[in-house]
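Why does residue order matter? Because the sequence determines the fold. Keep that principle in mind as you read this record.
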Amino acid sequence: MDGGDRILERLAQLRAGDLAVRGGRTMAYVYDAGLDELEELAGRAHAALAGVNGLDMTAFPSVVTLENEVVARAAELLGGTGPGARTVGTFTSGGTESCLLAVLTAREHARRTRGVTAPEIVLPTTAHAAFHKAAHLFGLRVVDVAVDPDTYRVSARDIAAALTERTALVVVSAPSYAHGVVDPVPEAAAAAAARGVLCHVDACIGGWYLGHRRLAADLPAPPPFDLGVPGVTSLSVDLHKYAYTPKGASVLLFRDAELRRHGWFAHAAWPGYPVVNATLQGTKSAGPLAAAWAVIQHVGTDGYTDLARRVHLATRRLVDGIGRIDGLRVLGEPDASLVAVASTDPALHPFVVADEMRLRGWYLQPQPAFADSPANLHLTVTAAVAGGDRIDELLTELAAAVPRARDLGPPVVDPALIELARTLDAAALTPDEAALALAAAGVGADGALPARMAPVLAVLQELPPALTERLLPEVVSRLYGGA
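Structure:
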């Protein structure tokens, strides 16, 4: 075996401990079209442009051509090509970067056009954490707006009530990650527009799917959500989700080039080359862009519409099937391909169900309780999940896991531990105190996690959020050898 083979063998050994990224059993984090040829095509396209540097598009004009074609495809799908439309966009590394850039652009727009010096961002409590990250990084005050406890959608009236002269941006979701429901985009966008405020639609996870589902005459149309809605000023859509491209591909669309300019960075006051960045990155490989372009070209509109049809039908079968499993219920009424599953039985805990499923090769993502949303399991339905008998297999396995989980009972959390935790000052927590807290939650000194995560998640769920946010980086630090 030569050196190259040994290196690849080592990678294969490492991958053996990961979740599967193909086959439809990992129902979070990965998106699989179930089309074998896409992986090879994307790999070849990525390799062809891996060495091309997107930092300077004047030196590498292929980047401009590919990005323009990808953005144009997204704009055409998502309401950006109607009469009078001047939609432009930026290719980014993923949904988080797209969201960060949307917030940065809104902050600068509010400062330059309205003189806002203490900007605020209005977020439904179901908005993705990426927007809280953006507010933290860019100095915006978050104004949280509660959602309906039954539908998990935000009210446009509540959005309007939260607006002030300092509001830089309103965010709504299509759909929200946690529950898969689409916020009332037309009403929220109208409320924002009435106050001269920008409105961003987070369609990172659902935009490509919902846009193509809308093209299928035999399927119910999704609620209106895109740039064709008056008042919507920007929209993010990830290609590495339901466009099934490799990771590192998202598009941020703006209503016009003038708005987009507020988020760009340019600098010439130094002795090096003039710098202009449309993204947070400087140097960036054109490989992900080329791979995304190639996959989009290959699948085409008809292909994506067919994939959307499969996903829609599979999601409906999944929701109906879960409704027939004693002890489980779906939260809200999903508009897209994301399903949140909670328990109706105090003796049945979703986190224990997740452990039972994972031990049998399925990953359902645990979501801790928050506000009116109880602890639940998140399921992302992709085209691979829709293929063959996968939904039937999932429902059969889930129905079998429920009685096992019920027999095991809910994870037990020591009340004394939680009471002690509430006396701790998260901001002043010492490393030794953090280690004790993590040990009590079942996390090893080296960051090792137990095979069954329900007890750990149950403890973290009960801790004050500030303390949980303090402890989570400690877990990651230990995993990376930084204890």
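The chain has three domains: 46-294, 310-408, 415-479.
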